[in-house]
Amino acid sequence: MGEQLEALNKAMVELDLDAIAPLVEKALEEGEAPVDVLGAMCQGMSGVGALFEKGEYYLADLVLAGEGMKEGLAVLEPRLEAGALGGKGTVVLCTVKGDIHDIGKNLVATMLSSSGFEVVDLGVDVPEARIVEAVRANGAKAVGLSVLLTSMVQSIADVVKALEVAGLRDQVKIAIGGACTTDALAEKMGVDAIGRDAVEAVRIFEGFCG
Ligand code: B12
Hints:
Methyltransferase, Methionine Synthase (B12-binding Domains), Chain A, domain 1, alpha/beta, five-stranded parallel sheet, Rossmann fold, binds cobalamin, globular
């Protein structure tokens, strides 16, 4: 990661909101790709989530970090759209049934659409029938499921099963991500990949749709 991107990541983690937009400008001026700038911000956001988990940050800090993302995105978005014309394929994305966490999913959505994917974002707490419907209606090649609650992992298996029953499982690849996901869980649930952050999500879906 370049010097400006390191600084941007640090400003996100330290909630130095005034520094974010100028650092985004600077990184772009120095020739960093918009999608890498967004990647640095996403990684910073994940750092904030980790500090919250350790008890070092409070909920208000997460809200501040969200504001920081908005400030950075205001500078970045016009540039990102220019790169988003690739038509890399359609991804149906959501947070699974029973789970309402959406910060990470939203970052994944932003990264994917900025990288040239069509993203059909179904939101949070989404039952498997709606996912099947969206895959069919949009001719999606891939599904991304965000899962943060251990108590809701069964929802992943429900999606896999529903796609099988609908005769669509062979046409779509499925990736999972979020706090409670592991390689072992991915294997157990019969999905195709697990992504640890929004940058890895882009790599995975490029592999799926390429
Ligand atoms: C913020 C937060 C909340 C917020 C959510 C706000 C929102 N709009 O999302 C609020 C306060 C509402 C909340 C509620 C709850 N929460 Co909560 N929450 C968190 C916290 C601290 C951070 C999550 C976050 O946003 N991180 C920052 C983002 C950027 O990171 P991320 O989500 O990991 O996403 C990245 C990657 O995982 C990946 N990714 C994510 N999704 C996907 C999908 C794909 C396809 C791919 C490839 C990649 C990918 O890319 C993302 C971007 O880099 C986590 C702690 C943690 N370690 O995750 C607990 C955590 C997830 N919550 C937890 C719990 C228990 C709850 C509650 C049940 C609490 C309660 N008793 O009410 C409720 C659940 C309500 C529900 N039904 O869903 C537990 C879950 C424990 C478990 N293993 O089951 C955690 C782990 C905290 C803990 N250690 O106890 N929570």
